[in-house]
Design goal:
mainly alpha
Length: about 100
């Protein structure tokens, strides 16, 4: 949902856009920094990466069909990458170190 005044995306929408654009798992700080620098996320909070984390963790926990998966301790990816191939979560975890896309 876009913010009415700024046109910015929600945290989850911004994360989806950034992950889709860069095509590989990213950390919360990378997702947040890229979203802020590209102007698709606007926040006045002091810890936007923590807010991003909270939003993504809740999305994954509350939704059976969350767009996101956590692939290791600090990186997130799009569920569609794993579903569109034979990539398993453990395989995805191994790929994170190589910065390879999950396609």
């Amino acid at each position: 949902m876009r913010h009415r005044e700024t046109g910015a995306l929600s945290f989850a929408e911004a994360a989806y856009h950034i992950l889709k654009k860069y095509g590989r798992p990213l950390s919360l700080s990378e997702i947040t920094s890229l979203a802020l620098s590209e102007g698709i996320l606007s926040t006045t909070g002091k810890t936007p990466a923590a807010t991003m984390g909270a939003r993504l963790y809740v999305d994954i926990k509350k939704k059976d069909n969350s767009a996101f998966i956590k692939v290791n301790k600090s990186k997130f990816a799009l569920r569609e990458w794993a579903e569109s191939s034979t990539v398993t979560q453990s395989h995805a975890e191994n790929m994170v170190g190589k910065n390879a896309p999950l396609r």
